[in-house]
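Title: Comparing notes on inverse folding

I've been comparing how different people in this forum approach sequence design from structure. To keep things fair, I'm posting one structure and asking everyone to reply with a full sequence. Here's the target:
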């Protein structure tokens, strides 16, 4: 299993404990080339699941290498965004997710 899959599978406990209170009430979709799509639902179920959703408030697109580099060093996200390796359709909501990388 990849670091990406391990990470999203580990989010379920953190999401159910309310660790993402600043992003609560929103659904995030991550499209990670090489690792699939993942949905972080902080609106209804407080779960992270593999697969996409039509109800995303924010969609984030990147590749597996970039995402896993962000897991190692969250500061990578800013550079990835500036170079186009990381894209988000709602930057305000995406910035609220910085807490989940730590």
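Reply #1:
Here's my take.
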């Amino acid at each position: 299993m990849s670091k990406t899959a391990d990470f999203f599978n580990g989010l379920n406990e953190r999401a159910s404990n309310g660790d993402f209170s600043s992003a609560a009430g929103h659904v995030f979709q991550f499209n990670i080339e090489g690792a699939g799509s993942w949905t972080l639902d902080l609106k209804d179920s407080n779960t992270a699941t593999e697969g996409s959703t039509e109800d995303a408030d924010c969609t984030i697109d990147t590749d597996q290498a970039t995402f896993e580099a962000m897991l190692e060093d969250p500061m990578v996200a800013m550079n990835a965004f500036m170079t186009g390796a990381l894209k988000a359709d709602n930057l305000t909501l995406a910035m609220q997710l910085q807490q989940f990388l730590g």
